[in-house]
Input
Amino acid sequence: MGSTSEVEFYSSETELLMTLPFVSGGIAAGFPSPAEDYLDTGMDLNHELVKNPATTFYGRVKGLSMKDDGILPNDILIVDKSLEPKNGDLAVCFIDGEFTLKRIAKKRDCIYLMPANPEFKPIRVTEENDFIVWGIVTWVIKNTRR
Output
């Protein structure tokens, strides 16, 4: 669908039903338990992760500005454009012709776009900027085999 220096965008396809096996009893992070007893009929990740299909997009992270929040290149973002931004939200923002992934920090006189990497500076949004919050990140899907 599109690409920037920080996020590569894709539209969500929720019409297709793709049910995968699901461990309904949970997966223990402590002592192991027999998993076969808990396999359920399945789960469709589209229905679990996408609440507003018409306004939801996927994005692939390309930059390192959010690395201290654990968001790294090739992680998949689920972005909902219908949500109202709140202080502290992780958001895909459009500022002065560029997309960026940052946390929103609302101060009394302005908005800051906050990175999670000390090598990047916060971006102060002023009236002179061409700025919109394009969408709110609702889920981050991580690749644990980097």
